[in-house]
Amino acid sequence: MEKPWRGRLAFLVLALLLPWAVGALESAALLPVRGDALIRTGGDLETDFAGEEAPVVALTFDDGPRRSTTGALLEGLAQRGVHATFFLVGEMLEGNEDLIRDMAAQGHQIGIHSYDHVWLTDLSAADFEREVGRTRETLRSIAGEGSYLLRPPYGGVDRGVEKRAGSPIILWSVDPEDWKDRDVERIVSHIVSNARDGDIILMHDIYQSSVEAALRVVDALHEKGFLFVTVEELAQHNHVELEPGKVYRCFYP
Ligand SMILES: [Zn+2]
User: Fold this and answer.
1) Is residue 41 part of a domain?
2) The whole model's pTM is what?
């Protein structure tokens, strides 16, 4: 007859290992960039999988696309194996269709930042539709079906915006105000010193200074073990199910 403690010991070992194994599998499935980022930055993959969870953040870019700056940013992100989220302005879409298709094909997430970059608060249903619905339709015609999250310009949200959004509303938790002085050093240092696991970082890909800062931020945070994912991946990673009309600023674990 088998000694009963053996069964209990085997069970104990299994119980201890199971959460780790599930966690490792889950991270591997949800974070395809993990291996990439670590290998490229010379990180230690084994230590990472066996040890602590790496901090994960989402870089988001508003007000584009702008061919010169957005193109350079896409190139830099591709070199670094990083996926970001772009909230695009409807009136900037025409003539940039190839750029938007590249964005989608490279694994970035695309969202809506209104048609004319206006406040969405206090709009009639028809005006809201012209700003958000029209942009969503144009994006669908260019890049196909997608969730197209909403980021209202200026972060302006009221009951009307929540009611009519038609998708989750994504704000941010780190804002370097990169549009203000366009000082690359200051922008990089603001983000690198404030970023923590689960943050949504706000930037604007229409400035050369922001593109340069963003790529330096990626390099600096890679060095510190951070990983970059899209907003949707960040929510999923922290087991948050996004709901239409609901406002999200971060996904802290
Ligand atoms: Zn904006």
Assistant:
1) no
2) 0.81
